[in-house]
């Protein structure tokens, strides 16, 4: 292919010099007079058209416009006419995007999950309780004392809750009656993450002994299958129901994708420079988001090893990430006390919610995408408006 032509100042064509003539010399005085007359007439017309506008603007202007601030106002009008840089949606958020807040757990709130219909919120904390809240207004429905102590992991399906604990126990609870239905233990390795696997008869555990295990709820001591492959503690899980895919990550700084139909390892994602703390899979099953201890968020495709995005903005570790139901936004909970919302296609943060005093331990979108719930080390649970329309505005 022929290289594109480069135009420089020296290579640009020169303007053609006009030819002089005697006729043009004789006409110069006349042409000058005509030009002066035309300029005067044009100036008069422009002044006539401009005076009403000036009078009108003075009539509408407030009294302060006549003070020493007038030049500032004129300069502001001139700047507004020029192209302005895009205003971040974060600067347009309302002063109080928080909808509700409640002191939920003594010593700190640690985990939270929405019910499938979004009407209830389930939380756990350092006080060793599981609490059920009405999402609208955060009124308390029920408190369930956890026999094994504070929960280290939480999964919800319908009225059934699974809580994971230090020492390896997983407890199953009927949250409608506060009754403990079963207890599971493979060994004494701490349970760091839990997920239901497609229905309420199977679940998955991630534990400190580098293992991921698939369980049938009918068998309390022996899992159906144990996945090997991680080289350190497994801290995070995410399940994609439509694709029967499971993602796991942990202290070996890798994310692994498993096929639950064949029980095979699909691929390993590398790149994070610190421990994986949380994983989420987009609702359509096409993207994996992983947060790490160094404050990074990385997003990969589930169909390849391709890294699609990398976000940084939190000052410190990220404790949890959650996809919005539309798959276009991602919320993150940081140890810097903020909840951030990221626009995946625009590759940037569009919102930062502040209010927690201390770390934000957990975050999750409501099923309809209108709210974001967060739990903090300050013991509070808060609900924020997701502001989807504002976030998409330009």
Would you kindly provide a brief summary of this structure?
A hairpin with a 3-residue loop joins strand 19 and strand 20 (296-301). The protein has a single domain (108-392), classed as YVTN repeat-like/Quinoprotein amine dehydrogenase (Methylamine Dehydrogenase, Chain H), CATH 2.130.10.10.
**CATH fold call:** Methylamine Dehydrogenase, Chain H
Going by helix content, strand content and strand pairing, the class is mainly beta
How many β-strand stretches? 28
Percent of residues in helical segments? 10-25%
In spatial order, strands of the major sheet run 1-28-27-26
Shape designation: globular
Secondary-structure arrangement, i.e. CATH architecture: 7 Propeller
- Give start-end ranges of low-pLDDT stretches: 1-95, 389-394
Instruction: Provide mean pLDDT, rounded.
Output: 81
**Contiguous helical run count:** 3
Largest sheet: 4 strands, antiparallel
CA-CA gap between termini: 40 Å
Task: Give the class-level CATH name.
Answer: Mainly Beta
Percent of residues in beta strands? 35-45%
Summarize the structure in words.
By secondary structure, this protein is mainly β. The protein has a single domain, classed as YVTN repeat-like/Quinoprotein amine dehydrogenase (Methylamine Dehydrogenase, Chain H, 7 Propeller). The chain is built from 3 helices and 28 strands. The protein has helices spanning 22-60, 70-81, 388-392, and strands spanning 98-103, 109-114, 120-125, 129-134, 139-145, 153-157, 160-164, 170-174, 179-184, 191-196, 202-207, 212-216, 225-227, 234-240, 245-250, 255-259, 264-269, 276-281, 287-292, 296-301, 307-312, 318-323, 329-334, 338-343, 348-354, 360-365, 371-376, 380-385. Strand 26 (360-365) and strand 27 form a beta hairpin. The radius of gyration is 32 Å and the shape is globular. It starts with 21 loop residues before the first helix and ends with a helix.
